[in-house]
Design brief:
mainly beta, 7-stranded antiparallel sheet, 2 helices, about 210 residues, globular
């Protein structure tokens, strides 16, 4: 089950991986956004509530390109009788794109089995293929194929303004700081290199639109 300690255990470096996809918006626990349920390939008991299984997936920063954000301002504009423009603002929505080059086709050579501390028995071992233990190409493709509707995306990048404008707002780099509900608008991948007996290398490009 995901907890703040679990997310810390899944984090390979000082900051979490940039992207997390989730079936739910999670909860705010001591100032940290934590998804509800078990991660894809998480370790759980046979008696576990089925609605809590495969609820989120942490994406890898392995050979990840930049996060591209394109805000779209939804508004109605018209000119008044004196020629001045008047705008009725409805909402601002994001379109985000991201890509990976030579991403291993799988995160681990078999089921990662993430434990309660967010660690896999294959961490830092020859059976772990992504540099930070995040999802590989097949895991991303499977999420796309099984999610025709919206889901939630957790983002970890420096946007301290989400937490206010005082000095405390600057202290949230080590956590997910923005959560938006999205659709996958476009997903493409290519098999760049077929590996030996363990994995291939894929190029993947994903475009997501805010609900």
């Amino acid at each position: 089950m995901a907890t703040a300690a679990y997310l810390t255990g899944r984090r390979r470096y000082q900051r979490p991986q940039a992207l997390l996809w989730s079936e739910n918006p999670g909860t705010l626990v001591n100032g940290l956004y934590v998804p509800t349920g078990y991660e894809v390939q998480g370790n759980y008991d046979a008696e576990t509530d089925q609605t809590l299984i495969d609820q989120f997936m942490i994406l890898s920063d392995h050979n990840r390109g930049e996060l591209n954000f394109t805000p779209t301002r939804i508004e109605q504009r018209q000119r008044t009788i004196n020629g001045r423009m008047r705008s009725y603002h409805i909402a601002d929505k994001l379109t985000m794109s991201v890509s990976w080059n030579n991403l291993p086709s799988r995160g681990y050579y078999q089921n990662a089995g993430f434990d309660a501390d967010g660690e896999s028995p294959y961490k830092n071992a020859t059976g772990e293929f992504t540099s930070d233990g995040g999802a590989g190409g097949v895991e991303l493709l499977n999420w796309y194929e099984t999610h025709t509707g919206p889901f939630w995306m957790f983002l970890a990048y420096d946007k301290y303004s989400n937490f206010g404008d005082d000095n405390a707002a600057f202290g949230h780099l080590a956590q997910y700081n923005q959560i938006i509900q999205v659709y996958i608008a476009d997903f493409s991948y290519s098999v760049v290199k077929r590996g030996g007996a363990n994995h291939d290398l894929w190029n993947i490009s994903v475009t997501l639109e805010e609900v």
